[in-house]
Structures are given as structure tokens and as C-alpha cells.
Amino acid sequence: MKVIAAFFPLGSVSLVRNVNVGLGSLLSISRTVNGGSLIEAFGSLRRKSTQASVVPQKNKRLGGPYPVRVVNGKNPKRIPQPYRLRGVPRLPDPPKIDPNRPIVQYPYFVERSRYGELPVYYSIKNGRTRQLTTIRRIEGSLQALRDDIVKELFPGALKGDIKINETSRQIIIKGNVRRDVMQWLHDKGF
């Protein structure tokens, strides 16, 4: 390590020149002697040149000094903004009810979940050979709901295709018909 430092006692001009200085050398002004600056050079090889340092700089957008990541003395890299998810809204639109339409009372009621979703679920069993659609949270007559589903949605369905589970108050339909059942329930006002 070879450091050349010039000291001017008048303090008007200070000249420091580093020749073959090791990585991470630190120059600091340590004391004042006779009105001039004594410049001492300290060499430190502890840090590598590839490490990043945090330098407080003024951020124009935020208006204050905030730490900015600087790599090898270059301009700070811009951190990309996180992706914003743009999708369908979480809650579906409420059913549109005509004020002139008479209110229909069904002998059954399908209660929505606490997040406002219809409780219609799709499940796969037996290594993708058995697909089931389940309607849960049914209050009232399960048989009347099953009859309406057979009459309006699946007129040619066999008796074993739509089953009632009295214990858990569910209706189980063979196949992936989740969207059809949800649309039908939505149109009925549930």
C-alpha cells in the first residue's frame, strides 16, 4: 500500500493522492494542526469491493434522507414494485331483485358462508375417477331442494346421481357441476 499525502499548513489547499491503495481504504481528517488539515490514510482490507454499502441520500420522491443501496460506488439500483393482483372481486354481486316481483318462499334455505360465498364445493376422489359436487349449509327440506335440482337443472338424472346426506345436511351430486349449481342458486335469490 502506497499513499501520498500533501500537507499545507495554510489550510487553503489539501491534496491527497492514493496510488495502489488496497481495497476499502479509508481516508479521514483526524485533527487540525496550525490551521491546516492533517490527512491520515488508513488501509483496511476487511471489506471486499463487491459488498454493498448503505449510504443515506436524499430521496426526491419522499423528501427526506433515507438509506439507499449503493453497490461499488455506482448509482443505486431501482427496486421493482411488487406485482399488483388484478382479478375478480372476492364477493359476488348481490342478486338483482325486481321490486315488482313477488317474494317466493321456498321450503329450504341455503345459507352463505361468513365470507359471502355460496356453499357449493367440488371434490375429487378415487384418483380422479369420482368427481362430486356438494351443497352444504342447507336449512329446511332437503328433499324439496333435491326435487327442484332434478326438475330444473338435471331433468334426466338418475336417482343415484343426486344423493341426500341427512346427518350432515348436504346434497351430493355426481360430476363437476359446481358452476351450474351456483348460478342456479344465485338466480333463485340465495
Automatic annotation (TrEMBL):
Q: Which Gene Ontology biological process is one annotated for this entry?
A: translation
Instruction: Look up keyword DNA-binding and say if it applies.
Output: no
Asked if the keyword Ribonucleoprotein belongs to this entry, the reply reads yes
What Gene Ontology molecular-function terms does this entry list? Answer: structural constituent of ribosome
Q: Where primarily located?
A: mitochondrion
Location of this chain's protein in the cell: Mitochondrion
Q: Name one GO cellular component term.
A: mitochondrial large ribosomal subunit
A Pfam family (short name) is Img2
Note the superkingdom of the native organism.
Eukaryota
Alphabetized, the UniProt keywords read: Mitochondrion, Ribonucleoprotein, Ribosomal protein
Q: Hey, what's the signal peptide range on this chain?
A: none
* Similarity-based family: Belongs to the mitochondrion-specific ribosomal protein mL49 family.
Q: What is this protein called?
A: Large ribosomal subunit protein mL49
Q: Which organism is it from?
A: Paraglomus occultum
